[in-house]
Amino acid sequence: MDDERGTVRSARAGASDAPSDRARLPRSRRTVGEAAPPGSSSPWILMYHSVAVEEEDPYQLTVSPERFAEQIGWLHRRGRRGVSVRELMRARAQGRDDKLVGLTFDDGYADFARYAVPILQAYGFTATAYVVADLLGQDNGWDTEGPRKKLLTVQEVTELASAGWEIGSHGLGHQALPGLPADVLAVQTRESRRLLEEVVGGPVTGFCYPYGAVDRPAAAAVRDAGYDYACAIAHSPLTGRFALPRCYVGDRDGAWRLRAKKGRHRLRDAVTSLKHSRRERRP
Q1: Is the confidence at residue 12, as pLDDT, over 60?
Q2: Half-sphere exposure at residue 152, Cβ-oriented, CA atoms within 13 angstroms
Q3: Whole-number Å distance between alpha carbons of 158 and 12
Q4: Each residue of 156-184: pLDDT tens digit?
Q5: Confidence label for 273 from pLDDT (cuts 50, 70 and 90)
Q6: Separation of alpha carbons 193 and 274, rounded Å
Q7: 234 φ, ψ to 5°?
Q8: Measured distance CA(100)–CA(103) in Å, rounded
Q9: Which residues does residue 83 pair with via DSSP β-bridges, in sequence order?
Q10: Among 137, 134, 127, 136, residue whose Cα is nearest residue 167
Q11: Residue 36 pLDDT exceeds 60
């Protein structure tokens, strides 16, 4: 891994416009796993991975460009605007997120820039790409049974960030965080953020758990590393700012399936909120 991290460092070495010390967000005062305020709900966030043409897709992580364009068009016709999670959380804090939906792309596949970005730009949408800091310019070696997919390079990540796309951390080497020792968790969260801030030339405030796997120590490590939020997948006892649930989107998802998934998200949100309330009332 040291050689791979060196690739990122060398790509940014001597960059005179990169400040020596990155501004850090203050540590959130919210307790990890704390329930959302009464009456509130989790924002609707869609989880994508790859947008490309693939004959083999055993993990069902790929959406064709044609299907992706249909899905984005459906959101637009429904009066929704796709945004990065960074923008979504800011709008939510101001009570202006009613018509917004978060769009996320895990793993940092190179096809995000080739296929997804032009379609999103056509509708005036934005999105967040979560990249694996140690693997920029390499491939998805963790998907042992799937096709090899190229990952965004250092230059591509830099260009995307300069164009206004949010770049978030997906850890160092796409390693699941639950069960890792505290010192390893600190490296996974802090070092990935530091390396990516060198690449993008500014703060990296969002984290996404590899495989969507999160437990309380992992969420605490993300919070303590100075991130503003973190994305998980499923609703859980940790659902909140540092374990935001998301809706998986695949190539089979047309308009009626997306509507159903929106309803399921609301239902799961209500059930999770009820469970939170019951736990709080226990003596």
Answers
A1: no
A2: 33
A3: 10
A4: 999 999 999 999 999 999 999 999 999 99
A5: confident
A6: 34
A7: -85, 155
A8: 10
A9: 102
A10: 127
A11: no
Beta bridge partners of 82: 101
Residue 63, beta-bridge partner list? 51
What does the DSSP assignment read for 94-142? TT--TTEEEEEE-TTBTHIIIIIHHHHHHTT---EEEE-GGGTTSB-TT
Q: Count CB atoms within 10 A of the CB of residue 268.
A: 17
Place of tokens 């990935």: 192
Using 50, 70 and 90 to split pLDDT, how confident is the model at 133? very high
Summary mean pLDDT of the chain: 88
Looking at per-residue confidence, does 207 or 269 come out higher? 207
Q: Which residue has the tokens 């096709």?
A: 147
pLDDT for res 40 = 53
Q: Which amino acid is at 267?
A: L
User: From residue 175, how far is each of 89, 153, 226 by CA, in Å?
Assistant: 26, 19, 20
Which amino acid, 89? M
80 pLDDT exceeds 70?
A: yes
3-state secondary structure of 274: helix
The amino acid occupying position 244 is L
State the CB neighbour count (10 A cutoff) for residue 181. 9
DSSP notation for 65-98: HHHHHHHHHHHHHTT-EEE-HHHHHHHHHTT--T
Q: Compute, in degrees rounded to 10, the torsion defined by CA atoms 24, 27, 30, 34.
A: 80
Distance CA 154, CA 59 (A): 26
Digit-coded pLDDT (tens) for 94-123: 999 999 999 999 999 999 999 999 999 999
List phi, psi (to 5°) of 92: -65, -40
One-letter amino acid of 254:
G
pLDDT (average), residues 216-243: 97
Q: Compute the CA torsion angle 52, 55, 60, 61 (nearest 10 deg).
A: -20
